[in-house]
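RECORD CONTENTS
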Amino acid sequence: MSKAFSKTKEFRRFLLLIALTVLAFSYAMFQGGFVSWFLFYSFLPAAFYAFILFFYPLSLKGKRTFSKQEFLFDEQVRIQITLLRKNRFPLFYIVAEEMIENSPLLSEQQRKRALVPGFKKEFTFDYEISRMPRGEHHFTGIRVKTGDLFGFIEKEKQIPIENKIVVYPSFEELQYRPLSGSAAYGSAARARRGYQNEDMSMSVGIRSYQPGDRLSLINWKATAKRNSLMTKEFEQHQSHNIMIVMDCTPSAQFETVVSFTASAIKGIIPSGAQVGLLTADDDRRHFGVRGGEKHEQQLFYHLATIKETSTVSFASILENEAAIIQQSSTLLLVTSQLTEGALERARYYSSQGQSVIVFLADGSQATSESRPAQQWGGISVCIVRKGQFAKAFSEVSSA
């Protein structure tokens, strides 16, 4: 409803109020008697209040507060709205409606709250969102409506209270284990195992100490010679990098795909390995192989906003993006629909010397039974379920 139309409607109601008041007075004058004057004087307070309300400036300010700052998929969140006004003019009711831009957070009924402010200058209401959907949600403001008891005058105002929240995908703690078993990268895998066991004989050099390096990796002999902290450098730092390719085609298990991808990133980056991500929903997005907290935040933000809108098959993505995929030593494919075409492309990359693992998302919940990784045409395929992500890499390593 446009602002001009709303003003015209409000003015018409005001004219109707005046006409009814004049009509009631005329009836009492011409009819006379106790009943007609009683009706007039009974109507007069309501008409007088509505008359004042028409000229009353509905001036409100507001603020929105959240129960926490960071949100994960399916979490419960409480939101509190506080409205403030400058005076204590009595208001019989206020209907406050939350305004959210293109978001399924709340239904039409859940967005509205009826309040009885009376003479209060400040009043609050809160509501809960039981399951936060993943994505970026824009809260644009609060629409406030009030009026008199008989509905002669209604006033409406939109209070701009802008907030943007990002709901990140849920993730599970898992310990990343570097993959072994690839002939082309056998030496790198052995070097990685040596790195984990801190075997000094597997180091390939030394470098200056950097913040975040573990103290157990300091080369004390070189440190004493150079009079500055020196850290042992292993082959893993030079050769071990991972590219994750995530399937974005529509699927009932898409949230499991996103959740496992987030869990894998959360486990890989702290291990010292570098990780990249390739997705293709409406737009193709590629994040280079890097490490660090900032890179992790970029990947998580992308996973928060990604949608299952890919019109290109997963096999076609694997075929068309060969130049990017082959830049890494290890390839992780995360999908919920493993077709023969995708499996064939996985075999191709494996034949080119890459370590290839396929993680197949299963929509069923965790049970006491575990499905270990299996070999499908020479490719390790690990079925992952929510609640069992922690076992994924250990199952692959033992397969």
Summary: The chain has three domains: 3-55, 60-168, 186-398.
